[in-house]
Amino acid sequence: IAQVEFEKADNENLRSPICCIMGHVDAGKTKLLDCIRGTNVQEGEAGGITQQIGATYLPGENLRDRINRELKVHVGLKVPGLLLIDTPGHESFMNLRSRGSGLCDIAILVVDIMDGIKPQTVESLKLLKMRKTPFIVALNKVDRLYGWKTCHNASIVKAKNQQSKDVQNEFERRLTEIIAQFKEQGLNSNLYYRIKRGENEEKREKEEKGEREETISIVPTSAISGEGIPDMLLLLVKWCQRDMVEKLTYRDKVQCTVLEVKVNEGDGTTIDVVLVNGVLHEGDQIVVCGMQGPIVTTIRALSTPHPLKELRVKGTYLHHKEIKAAQFIKIAAQDLKNAVAGTDIYVVGPNDDLEVVKELTMGDKESVMNRIHRTGEGVYVQASTLGSLEALLDFLKTPAVNIPVSGIGIGPVHKKDVMRARIMLEKKKKEYATILAFDVKVTPDARGIADKHGVRIFTADTIYPLINQFKAYIHTHKEEKKKDVADKTIYPCVLKIKPECVFKKKDPIIVGVDVLQGIAKVGTPICIPQKKFIDIGRITRILNKEQQVDLARKGSAVSIEISGSNPVEKQTKFGRHFEIEDELVSHLSRSSIDILEELYWDELPKELRKLVVNMKKLFKIL
Ligand code: GDP
């Protein structure tokens, strides 16, 4: 890398890349950011857990200095800086989109060299792949290799050369293992300086033809002693400037997405936004998408976290009259309380028609809102941003999951959301009186009301655990319900009386039958479709080779006893009301079909489902 040099930045006008940091819990995401910033937030947090989105802007000079100092290369920096976003609910941020493309330009996937790839890493990989976000891997905690000699902030090549043979071997062993783990995930990876020049260009061409993935760069790092950090910064910058020129070309038109809506005591509500393109000014008239409609307001104040500090650290804001993209900004304005996180805000220009801008602003939200299940029955879904809501709705809709949604909301779960979810109790859909809270807080009020009324709230900051919790609940709920209605559960069946097997002609009728179709179960009402659907009673006993059984399946030959549902004077008799050639058919009703459809449908064999459908036609059940 010693000879890496960039051409002078002249006619290209690039904005700062937006970079997201992902990885499993404890991989060192927070520490890595601390190290990049030279601050220490991680220790100040409860249990070191990142509580909310934090953003760090790394100015160009800082980037250049660090790279130059440690790597002794001159960087012709074209990007003004680097905007790093530390996202605890990765999914939330990764799902944010602005004008159809992801907010995040690149990502750093942090992997602990001692742990390798963990399930959460795999989730991150899925997300990166789905969003087509390019990324590098920071193979963190190299200083934990036994016997590692610290070389503060050194390039990884230099640091590695200082290590004993044993440490180097151990490093190679772990690296090889992790490369193999990535391979298992279908990804090629290698130490970044072992990837040959031109290798990826070639691969990218092949990939376009649908052949192979390019090799992912691995940068070994220590977030504690700083080895490899300059390499990582160089790699990010180099990569952006080489491969993302088009995406990173600065545009004047304001492109700005709301990340979070913050209700602050005292100074009202503010919104945290990422300004991707354009300039915002104090006094600009803006339109923000609101839960109840467009919010037209004026920017009262614009502030950013101090460079190198992050938004989470209090009292470190800088105020601006105007700010140019890309930046992470706090906007103060009136009436922002109902703003919808994850939507784009629009600036009203002198020639703009306010009504048109309003419509534009509401467009994304409306398209998401329109996806609610039409029957009005389903769970209530609450997510942190429009993007994460959208991702969750998409996921719930997939055939493998198939969970209907009746209502949606964005932001923390409040009392009103619980009251909306509660409607499902009135509709006798207890299992849907549930809120799936994706990466949002639940207010204590809401929790109290939910407990009181029997509304369930499931929370998680990633999709899979959230859905799994709900599925487990549905399963238990279903099993309970099955027990409750066991007596009323009957299946469709078609029976044929065997000649010479009419043992008793009138109530209780006892006949030998072949089960031609379906399942005959004790309790099943039997009718004769050929004789105007006359009801002859219910199956009260089934004997299979002298053994009493509860049910008999297609293909079996059994004796059944049918006892009358009719008063004595109207009792049906064999030979009078029906004959040997008449088929005996289960008389299914709307409610018995409901039970099958609601509780047993997934487990019914195809043939039986078909029979149910045919019986619905036979009995004219719509
Ligand atoms: P996060 O959950 O991914 O944000 O992980 P943190 O940044 O909170 O780090 C988890 C733990 O690993 C903390 O105790 C850190 O001090 C420690 N840690 C993080 N990076 C390194 C590293 O490079 N070397 C060593 N030795 N420890 C690290």
Automatic annotation (TrEMBL):
GO cellular component, one term: mitochondrion
Family designation: Belongs to the TRAFAC class translation factor GTPase superfamily. Classic translation factor GTPase family. IF-2 subfamily.
Enzyme Commission number(s) of this protein: 3.6.5.3
Segments forming domain Tr-type G: 14-245
Catalytic class of the enzyme: hydrolase
Localization annotation: Cytoplasm
Keywords from the named record: Cytoplasm, GTP-binding, Hydrolase, Initiation factor, Metal-binding, Nucleotide-binding, Protein biosynthesis
Protein's recorded name: Eukaryotic translation initiation factor 5B
Keyword Protein biosynthesis: yes
